[in-house]
Design a protein that fits this description.
mainly alpha
């Protein structure tokens, strides 16, 4: 691949973006929101699970009584359908759930914003 091929590739990408502004904005919103959700998954997980007053950790302790890293890990594991030892997806599953939710929300909002603007 030489420089000319790279230039043609980027020209085609720019043409595609110009021809499909709604899809392009939705993709950009999905990437941006998914990245933000992944970065902020721990505090988002705690905030989401805090709304469920009866959520319990895999030890049986109410998550609302925990603090710090224990609350973060228990919240993410709760969102991941339970701890790995209990057959759930654990912390990774909770982080993935928040990331996917953020990406879907971001693409929806970006697509709607471009649709309204055009």
């Amino acid at each position: 691949m030489n420089w000319w091929d790279v230039e043609i590739f980027f020209d085609e990408c720019i043409d595609t973006i110009k021809e499909n502004p709604i899809k392009s904005a939705a993709a950009a919103g999905m990437i941006a929101a998914g990245t933000a959700a992944f970065i902020f998954a721990p505090p988002l997980g705690v905030a989401i699970v805090a709304q469920v007053g009866t959520a319990t950790a895999s030890t049986g302790t109410l998550i609302s009584t925990l603090s710090g890293a224990a609350a973060t890990n228990a919240s993410l594991a709760y969102l991941g359908c339970g701890a790995l030892a209990a057959g759930g997806s654990g912390i990774a599953g909770g982080t993935a759930a928040i990331t996917v939710g953020g990406a879907v929300l971001g693409s929806s909002v970006a697509g709607a914003a471009v649709t309204i603007a055009s």
